[in-house]
Amino acid sequence: MAADCIRHAKRFPSLPLEWRIQSAATMKIDILTLFPEIALSPLSDSIIQRARDAGLVEIHGHNLRDWSQDKHRRVDDSPCGGGPGMVLQPGPLHAAITELKQENTHTILMTPQGAPLKQARVRELSSETHLLIVCGHYEGIDHRVVETLIDEEISIGDYVLTNGAIAAAVLSDAVIRLLPGALGDSQSAVEESFSDPNLLEAPCYTRPVDFAGMKVPEILLSGNHAKIAQWRKEQAALRTRKNRPDL
Ligand code: ADE
């Protein structure tokens, strides 16, 4: 542990000390799905892959079919009471979840029936040490598994994806980028955590200041930081009213 702290403290010299010490504890994410490649692919590049390489997070994909007792590796059956689609059977899910669960595990089911994911919940989840993310498919999973083995059901939005592996990747990405050190030396995650969750961010611009006749707002080139902050606040309010009147 002490050696880990020194290693991480050296790796991220410009981050606050508490962050560097916290980052010595590696988070583990297990994703249980019929499609591990779909879940892992977006988590194998860029910032997330760098976080994995730096030892901030360990991610493992598991194919639910590996726990099937069926000779054709079947894991689903038709819904009791009739209706369209298929339901994931309790047997393989129970065997897989009980094998993958540890003492410190928080088990999440990705489903459109879950609570809508918000940044505040993402922040809380980023302090867990082991997430086991179970991905639904077809009509869903047998509810006896939800009642006995799932701690929390999460939806990433009011729409239906082909499978929960995509949603698991979205949740994992959102959590991992908040791990201390994941964004490198950038202050973005710190600033975000202090910003108003009910306000969208103001529009942003970069060079060239004149692009095809469209100019960057003068105020942003003025060097007057108080005025710029005020302008950003007003623009954020306008943008929120236009795009997210519900906030
Ligand atoms: N699986 C399918 N659609 C989903 C959604 N919107 N959120 C989480 N899991 C899902």
Quick structural overview:
Helix content is 38%, strand content 19%. It has helices spanning 2-11, 17-22, 36-40, 46-53, 90-100, 119-125, 143-149, 164-176, 188-194, 225-243, and strands spanning 27-33, 57-63, 76-77, 87-88, 105-116, 130-135, 140-141, 152-155, 210-211, 214-215.
Q: Which properties best describe this structure?
A:
247 residues; alpha/beta; Trp Operon Repressor, Chain A; 5-stranded parallel β-sheet; 3-stranded mixed β-sheet; disordered N terminus
Any overview of this molecule?
The chain has 247 residues and is α/β, with parallel strands linked by helices. The chain has helices at residues 2-11, 17-22, 36-40, 46-53, 90-100, 119-125, 143-149, 164-176, 188-194, 225-243, and strands spanning 27-33, 57-63, 76-77, 87-88, 105-116, 130-135, 140-141, 152-155, 210-211, 214-215. It has two domains: 2-176, SPOUT methyltransferase, trefoil knot domain (Alpha/beta knot, 3-Layer(aba) Sandwich); 193-243, Trp Operon Repressor, Chain A (Orthogonal Bundle). It has ten helices and ten strands. β5, α6 and β6 form a beta-alpha-beta unit. The radius of gyration is 22 Å and the shape is elongated. Adenine binds next to β5 and α8. Residues 110-112, 136, 155-157, 159-161, 164, 167 line the site of adenine.
